[in-house]
Every structure is written in structure tokens, then in C-alpha cells.
Amino acid sequence: DSQQGEALKMALKGKIDRIDLKQTGDIASFRVIDYKSGRFLKENLMRSVIRGQKLQLPLYAIMAEQILSEEMKKGRIPKGQTRLDEASFVYVAETEEKAVQGSPPRKTINSEEWMNCKERYWETLWEFLKIIRAGIFPVSPAEDTRKCEWCEFSTTCRRGNQPLRFRLGQDARLKKYREIINLNVRKKSNKP
Questions:
Q1: Around 183, how many Cα atoms within 13 Å sit in the side-chain half-sphere?
Q2: How far apart are the C-alpha atoms of 69 and 108, rounded to whole Å?
Q3: Suppose 94 and one of 44, 64, 98, 127 were both cysteines; which one would form an S-S bond, judging by CB atoms 3.0 to 4.6 Å apart?
Q4: pTM for the full predicted model
Q5: What is the distance between the alpha carbons of residues 149 and 145, in angstroms, rounded to a whole number?
């Protein structure tokens, strides 16, 4: 897809915490883990991914696919197909009482969910890149301001500027963006 090709030209900075690889015949199945030190939030991860609120895990899944493909080309792992088993946020800084119950809490995208949402994820990513390249930076409609506490751009954001929020809310160039951030995702199929 030409949109994906364009999106892949964007340089992004990130580091995958962990990739687990399992080779079965000609299939290299993998698991991506991103460790989080923040609080575990009860949210629908797939809805957050498709709405563009949590782009990190899917991006890491795509990066891991690329890394494994390169490793196959170099002969470091047997040639074949790559398949995502799961991608997870693992919350390692939860309270001690939760740690006593066993493994730390996690939010996971499994293989089936990824296959069901991959195309939608690309549409979301492409739309976000398109508006960023156009120099449009919409103000998040979320009322949760906790992110503002650590954001590098909080002094220039103008999040509280009501005229700006109104103008961006009416801006025709952001029609698709507004549709994306308001998508209603069904829990079972993860399709809008």
C-alpha cells in the first residue's frame, strides 16, 4: 500500500523492550512486550489502538516484523513467515498486593485481534501522519490532564484555549481525525 510506504518513511524514535521468538517449521511467531512503570488502566486496548490513543504496541509489532524479516534475509534465523502471537503492555510497578497474586497485570493484543485491526490501525496512523505533516496539531478532546504533567510541550500546547479548541473542532481538514477518535469499537470483533 502506497500509504503504508509513505508512513514508513517517517523517522520515529522508540525501543522495543522485549521480543520473544518461537520458530515452528517455516513460521517465526513472536511476542512483543513493552514494560510500563505507570498505573494499570481499565480500558479497551483495541479501542484505544484504533482511535489512535495507543499507537505504540502496534507500531512495535510492525517493527518486530521488519526486524525478523531482516534477520531472515541475513540468514540469522530460518527463512519463512512471521506471525504476531501477541503484543502486551506489562505493568511492572503495580502495588505489592497485586504482585502477590502472580504475574504483573498486562494489556494484550492477540494474533486474531491484530489481524482484525491491522488495516484500521494503518488508516489511523496514516491520517495522523497526514495532519502532522500538514502542520495541524489537534488538541486532545480528552478531559484527562494527567499526561500534561509530563508532556514536553505543555507550555506551548494551548489545550485550555477555548477559541482554538472550537476552531479545530470545526476545521474541515480534521473531519477524518474526528471520526477516528470517536470510533465505537465492538469488544468481540474489534471492528468499528
A1: 24
A2: 23
A3: 98
A4: 0.77
A5: 7
